[in-house]
Specification:
By secondary structure, the protein is α/β, with parallel strands linked by helices. The protein contains seven helices and 15 strands. The protein has two domains: 116 residues, Rossmann fold; 99 residues, Beta Barrel (OB fold (Dihydrolipoamide Acetyltransferase, E2P)), CATH 2.40.50. Helix content is 26%, strand content 31%. 27% of the residues are buried.
């Protein structure tokens, strides 16, 4: 069955009597599960609605109409046909209606309680809404702390405070806002050990903590009072990484 963007059931009214259409429009308006997408004065207009690409999940259809009766229209609707609830002043059409497998048959004047019962039958035919699986949990990122060898000691560094890492010959320098640590690892070797997805290589000599970036201008990354260049060969990957954050 066709639903709208708000997940309400799209419906149309087809009745040659304007007062009857207004009455049904009011009943639809009182029913939060429905959304009226067209109110049409006859069978030809209904056929044109569908031929022009119109879609709905429910037709509230008058039986006695000129040119094309409601019963005739039910045979001409596109397949799979929307649910049909017939609305008429006579009970004489009940047998024919149910031979056409309409969902319900309402006798005018239609009362809201009876209308609601018919709509409940229609809604019961709707396929269950697809269950959207919960998003896969993100991999738990390692803690911010990492043990690295600095001088003759192995120390624990809080990488949340590291602004960037700079290559220094065969060593690397961890730069924070207040201090620097010289690590006895090349930049390549250190990058392979980093378990943090937010540290990104932006230059052959620099890795930056993207969570500490304050601005990017003219291929220069500003991290507090420090600036780091973005190498030309690293620009595309760096931008892609920023977009995926």
């Amino acid at each position: 069955m066709t639903t709208t963007a708000t997940n309400r059931l799209a419906c149309i009214i087809v009745d040659d009597n304007e007062i009857n259409r207004l009455t049904l429009e009011h009943l639809v308006d009182l029913t939060p599960e429905l959304e009226l997408v067209a109110s049409l004065p006859g069978g030809l207009e209904a056929l044109n609605f569908f031929r022009n690409g119109g879609q709905c999940g429910l037709v509230l259809l008058d039986v006695e109409m000129p040119t094309i009766t409601g019963l005739e229209l039910t045979k001409l609707l596109p397949k799979p046909a929307p649910a049909i609830v017939l609305v008429t002043t006579h009970r004489d059409f009940a047998v024919a209606a149910f031979e056409l497998q309409v969902v319900d048959y309402l006798v005018k004047p239609v009362e809201f309680v009876r209308f609601s019962q018919a709509i409940a039958k229609v809604l019961a035919l709707r396929p269950p809404a697809p269950v959207t699986p919960p998003p896969a949990p993100k991999a738990v990122e390692a803690a911010n702390d990492l043990f690295v060898k600095v001088g003759t000691k192995t120390i624990k560094v809080n990488f949340a405070e590291v602004l960037y890492i700079e290559a220094l010959s065969t060593y690397s320098v961890l730069v924070t806002a207040t201090q620097k640590h010289i690590v006895y690892l090349t930049l390549k070797a250190l990058s392979e050990r980093l378990p943090f997805a937010h540290f990104v290589r932006v230059h052959r000599s620099y890795i930056v903590n993207v969570r500490r970036i304050e601005a990017i201008e003219d291929n220069m990354i500003k991290l507090g009072t420090h600036e780091v260049p973005v190498g030309k060969s690293y620009q595309e990957e760096f931008i892609r990484h920023l977009r995926n954050l």
